[in-house]
Amino acid sequence: MDISTLPIREISTCAIFLPLALAALKFKTGDLRIRLFFLFLLLGACVDGLGWLIYSNELKNLYTFHSIFQYCYLFFEALFFVWLCTGFLEHAKVDSIRIGFFVLLTAAFFIKGALFFSNLDDPYRPSALNSLMDGMFLASISFLSAFALLQMAERVSQLLTYPWFWIISGIFFYCFGSFFIDLMLSVGIMEEIWGMRNIVNIIQYCFFFAGLYLYKGKSMLADSQFIKRTT
User: Fold this and answer.
1) Residue 205, Cβ neighbours under 10 Å: how many?
2) Is the residue at 122 inside a domain?
3) pTM tops 0.90
4) How many CB atoms sit inside 10 A of residue 208's CB?
5) Least packed by Cβ within 10 Å: which of 85, 105, 149, 183?
6) 17-26 vs 32-56: helix axis angle to the nearest 10?
C-alpha cells in the first residue's frame, strides 16, 4: 500500500478518541492526574474535531473562533504538561522549578496572544516569532519530560508496566519530534514536512493508550514504587 494514499490527517484527528475513551473509563477511579489528563484529551479532541469540520467545509466565519479556542487549549496544554512532568521530579526546589516554567511559558503565550488579538500576526502561520514561541514551549517540555523519565528509570522497578512511563514518553516524543519539525519549517526546509506532525500525533496517542490501559487506579502498586517522591 502506498502510504501517500492514506488519510493521515484524518487518522491523526480520530486517533485521539482511543486514549480519550480509556481515560473516560478510568475517570471515576483515577486520581487528579488522570482526571486532568482526561480533560486535556477531551479539549484536544474538541479542537481537532472543530478544526477538521471548519476547514473541510470552508466555514471561514469560524476561523477566528477556532484560532482563539486553539490558542486557549495550547496554553492549558503547556501549563498542564509542566505540572504533570514536574510531579515526577525528585528535587528539593521542584516547586520553584515548576513556577519558573509557568512564568516562562505564560510570558511566551501572552506575547502570542497579544500579537493575535492586535492583528499584528497570525499565531498559527509559520514565522520566525511563532517558531521562537512554540520552540520555547516544545523545548521546555522536552527537557522536563526527559528528566521525569530518567528519574522514573531510577525509582520504578518495573518500568514498562508503569503507566506514567508511557504517558510521559508520549509527551516527550511529541514535543521533541515537533520541535525539530518546526525548526526545519522555520528555516524553509521542505515545508511539506509539516505533514509529519500528524504521524507524530498518532504515535503519541499510541503511547497514551498504552499508559491508560496499564493504569489500575489510585491504589495501584506501580505508584507506590515511586518511593521517595514527596507531595
Assistant:
1) 23
2) yes
3) no
4) 27
5) 183
6) 150
Three-class secondary structure of residue 89 per DSSP? coil
How many CA atoms within 13 Å lie on the side-chain side of 161? Answer: 9
Rounded CA-CA distance 39/127 in Å is: 30
Whether residue 231 lies inside any domain: the answer is: no
Alpha carbons 109 and 72: distance in angstroms, whole number: 9
Residue 224 lies in a domain: no
Amino acid at 52: W
Over residues 46-78, the pLDDT tens digits come to 998 888 888 777 777 777 788 888 889 999 999
Q: With the CA atoms of 44, 207, 30 and 82 taken in that order, what torsion angle do they form, in degrees rounded to the nearest 10?
A: -60
Q: Buried b vs exposed e over 48-67: b needs ≥16 C-beta within 10 Å?
A: bebbeebeeeeeeebeeebb
CA dihedral 183, 185, 188, 193 (to 10 degrees): 120
Residues 6+ apart with CB under 8 A from 130: 112, 121, 123, 124
Rounded CA gap, 132 and 137, in Å? 9
Which residues span the domain enclosing 36?
7-219
Domain count across the chain? 1
d(CA 79, CA 214): 25
